[in-house]
């Protein structure tokens, strides 16, 4: 269902307000994107397939140690394949005067930062 003109204008106004008032929040949300690490995915898939083959071979020839080793290799391969890639971060701009250092912000939780931001707005800062 398409938005009416009034709803579109209201949405655009809210977006401009968000970019204007919460530039640091917009930058922190949009700045980190995970890039898939194709090498670890390929190695993980190959290890998982090798582990499945070893598991089946261990069951087929009745060798318990080979089946257990195959399971461990398969499990390790899956873990390697699903680990997140490296984060791509943009370079932060100069901090505004009166702001806390970046290290103090990173030690706080997400909700704490939102509460601090809310308190600053209520105080008129």
Explain what this protein looks like in three dimensions.
This protein has 125 residues and is mainly alpha-helical. Helix content is 70%, strand content 3%. The chain has six helices and two strands; from the N terminus they run ααβααβαα. It has helices spanning 5-21, 23-31, 38-60, 64-82, 102-107, 110-123, and strands spanning 33-34, 87-88. The chain has a two-stranded antiparallel sheet with strand order 1-2. α3 (38-60) packs antiparallel against α4. The chain is elongated and about 75 Å long. Mean pLDDT is 77; it is low at 90-97.
Helix content: over 70%
- Structural shape: elongated
Oligomeric category: single chain
Name the poorly predicted regions.
90-97
The total beta strand count reads 2
Q: Over all CA atoms, what is the radius of gyration?
A: 25 Å
* Topology pattern, helix = H, strand = E: HHEHHEHH
Q: Name the structural class.
A: mainly alpha
Total DSSP helices = 6
Largest sheet: 2 strands, antiparallel
Mean pLDDT: 77
Q: What strand order characterises the main sheet?
A: 1-2
Report, as a whole number of angstroms, the end-to-end distance. Answer: 39 Å
> Roughly what fraction of the amino acids lie in strands?
under 5%
């Amino acid at each position: 269902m398409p938005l009416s003109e009034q709803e579109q204008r209201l949405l655009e106004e809210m977006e401009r307000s968000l970019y204007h008032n919460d530039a640091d929040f917009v930058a922190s949300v949009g700045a980190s994107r995970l890039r898939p690490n194709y090498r670890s995915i390929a190695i993980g898939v190959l290890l998982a397939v090798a582990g499945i083959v070893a598991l089946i071979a261990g069951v087929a020839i009745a060798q318990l140690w080979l089946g257990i080793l195959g399971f461990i290799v398969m499990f390790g391969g899956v873990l390697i394949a699903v680990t997140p890639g490296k984060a791509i971060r943009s370079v932060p701009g100069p901090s505004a005067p009166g702001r806390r250092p970046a290290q103090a912000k990173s030690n706080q939780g997400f909700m704490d930062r939102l509460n601090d931001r809310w308190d600053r707005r209520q105080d008129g800062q």
